[in-house]
Amino acid sequence: MRMLDDKVKDDNNEDIDCLNFNDLSKEHILQCVNIICHLTEEKLKSNNALFEDESQSIFMQVTCIRVPKTPRRFMRILLPYSIISSNDEVALFVGDLQRGRRRDYEPTIEYYENLLRKHGCTKIKSIIPMNQVKTEYDQYELKRKLVGSYDYFLVDGKIAGHLSHLLGKEFYKKRKLPTSIRMLSKDLKHEIEYALRKTVMQIHSYGDTHIVQVGHTFMKKKEILENILATCRYLSKNYPGGWVNIRSIRIKTSISLGLPIYMTLKNKCLVDVPVMQPRRPKAYHNVSGELTTAPGIATVTVTPEGDITVKKIKRRIFLQKKNLQNK
């Protein structure tokens, strides 16, 4: 099943045949979005939902042809329109002004509240200092409660690396890993709005389906359309295996079935299994040198994983080196 009614064009009005998804139909996608919103609204009314006025998240379900061999990682996709609704609550993790577990973190909260007020930032509901995470959210159940208390999380880029291991696996499961921002930016309001336009897709090798949020039911239909197209552009370049490895794309909510907006019957034998290498730091390499306890007799190699290999030098080569040194 392929939709070939209207060719999608990018912002520069250039045909995007080179990205291999010119078979998407804007008209068909809009129809699917309208149907999804209508079905969700009718289902909430029929179930006598307590919170009918709350928005429902709209997801894009991507099914691949070949399951990639890749470590678990997250792709952050920049969208034209933010997926934050008026009812969503956003929390900001910040560093401590004074370090130490016994230090009072109230001055830190007050400082950053004044900073946000100065820049006119009104979307942040709560500020959570690093010390508060260590002292009040050190148990598993408390971390689960923290994840459920807010819809989105931001974090000061200075502490992003230190915070990730403190948050626990619940943030990974709920796809609520904090997005980094620069708190020292001159235009902090724009920095926060830019970060809130990003959505997260978890890439793994446990199955052939990956999910990413592209909007909610309170958004305008054309805004949802633009977010879907922007996500497709990003996936065509960054999805494991590229666009040729995508079997189908569906849009759905958490209480509705998925409606297909793209599907191909391509033979999987024509697609290679994508292999993604884990990201490593620059210093991630083997280190070799002469064994100090047996100089001139053996060399030792240490890998980043901690494996140690000792290799003896051939006696003939050792004697040749020793004779050269005596001369």
UniProtKB/TrEMBL annotation:
It comes from Apis mellifera (Honeybee). Pfam families: Ribosomal_L1. It comes from the Eukaryota. SUPFAM superfamilies: Ribosomal protein L1. The gene is 551532. This is Ribosomal L1 domain-containing protein 1.
